[in-house]
């Protein structure tokens, strides 16, 4: 009986592994479905379980006010990702297909759906957000005919209702003998701040796209200005296939003076570039991204979870954009698409280790908004630069006014400075330090000097803040706020020394004397009046990692044991990852692995493992949580440390559940570390 059970389990396991590996996650389950976004740092497309549909498109860094009296909110793009396919007059729907399967190929950033339509055809299509043409999407379709069938395919541009005054058209552009059919919609964003232009067309791979008389005849239908359609019909003989693509581009006045014309040019580029060349470029760029990778042997589930997190970090950012990453990336309009400390504290460290090109983009996003941050400091009576809790394209405060975090959560300013010095530590890019790094660090240090209050005992307090634990509001001497301010002041003087600038004694004096409160037994106190309340997320423990304010083992253990039970169930995914890193660095691999899993497993959503922000919510993909999970692997188990000498490794440990851990492409030297 035991042997039979073993055989059954082995067969089930083999079946799963056959469909899923370290690079591919497949599913045949479309119940309780949460899709995995396909993105390229400029646009994000969220697939659906329904055939030939996607849920939505997100346009990165394109904002308009959510309402006349509201704050900014990232824009939904016009949905160009929905096709309507009919075979012999019957529409393909969930009810008319069998053997449905979806596969995310993380290596090539390709999302494939396949199914059978009755006994007439097998169909597959692959969705790409082209990395090489980043304002475009590409849907590559193949219909294999089991019988001779007549097909009708309709491509659509569906404009969200929030857009104003859309104008939908169809034109056939022509240059000499080359003809280029173009479906297009142009509209104003919800409050009129931006013009968005979206263009789309069909591509037939098997024919010369410059000869329109060889194409199927195209039919344009405008259901309304919000529903613009282009169709063709074609017979497919038994045993043959129809191979075609639907490609589209979405541009806005955030990035282009003439988004309408630019969207047409991108579509023409995709139309007239052979598919093999176009996709080869896309795959080559992703191959370069994956030079920074994490490889686990012996634990397929952990490998998939970790690589999925890294896939999302790479998908949501670009090294050539000088843009940052929102907590939900390009998967949704969550948190209005704004930029928080989530980037600097959680997403940035893994990227700094694995891809300095993207890391530079994240810090440059802040540098480009330094002048606005200096104005904010002046407006609140301080010196230097004061960064907003929620930032949009402008760099001004974008937090809803009712949320006290926007007015009082000030540690973000120190978090930015810490990220800046860490970028220099890893890259040693002195020109960047001169032009962007030190100017930022100086302004942040000046801010904290003006922000502190001097006490009678010559110490300094930082009063009236919201800390990382946002359950505690308008408190004094929050542990993480004070610790991050100390670190930012110290880093500013280190940067000055690197450039031959005399040490600022005021910065040093303030850093040396900012208060960190303690309980009577030596446990670090979260703020001056903290008395054991439930906390939203790690705060005190951040003083041990990523900061180095608390370093002695006795205090580390006291802080870990005291605060872990106090994290709320509804707290965000990254909270326990901090505890996991600290335990790993202390050599306690069992507690580290336990907390590593607890930090994200309850937040996974079927069928691909997308992360929700909390165990009790359903708003993936929460890339902040992925950042925490990846930090546990890199800076905990992997033993990596960011130091004045760059990234070094010490005291790596391997969970007993893993056979080996390999970290590839670490630092500017792209080192490989193997932990057996």
Short structural summary:
It comes from Lutibacter oceani. The chain is 32% helix and 26% strand. It is α+β, with helices and mostly antiparallel strands and 676 residues long.
Instruction: Write down the Rg.
Output: 27 Å
Largest sheet: 9 strands, antiparallel
Strand order, sheet with most strands: 1-8-9-10-11-18-15-14-13
CATH class of the domain at 25-289: Mainly Beta
CATH architecture of the domain at 25-289: Distorted Sandwich
What is the residue-mean pLDDT, rounded to a whole number? 95
* First-last Cα distance: 36 Å
What fraction strand?
25-35%
Number of helices: 16
Parts with pLDDT < 50 across at least 5 consecutive residues: 1-18, 208-213
What is the CATH homology-level superfamily of the domain at 25-289? Glycoside hydrolase, family 65, N-terminal domain
Number of strands: 27
| Inertia-based shape | globular
SS class: alpha+beta
The fold-level CATH name of the domain at 25-289 is Beta-galactosidase, Chain A, domain 5
Helix content: 25-40%
Highlighted features:
GH65_N, disordered N terminus, 16 helices, single chain, 32% helix, globular, 6hp_glycosidase-like_sf, five-stranded antiparallel β-sheet, hydrolase activity, hydrolyzing O-glycosyl compounds, 676 residues, nine-stranded antiparallel β-sheet, Beta-galactosidase, Chain A, domain 5, alpha+beta
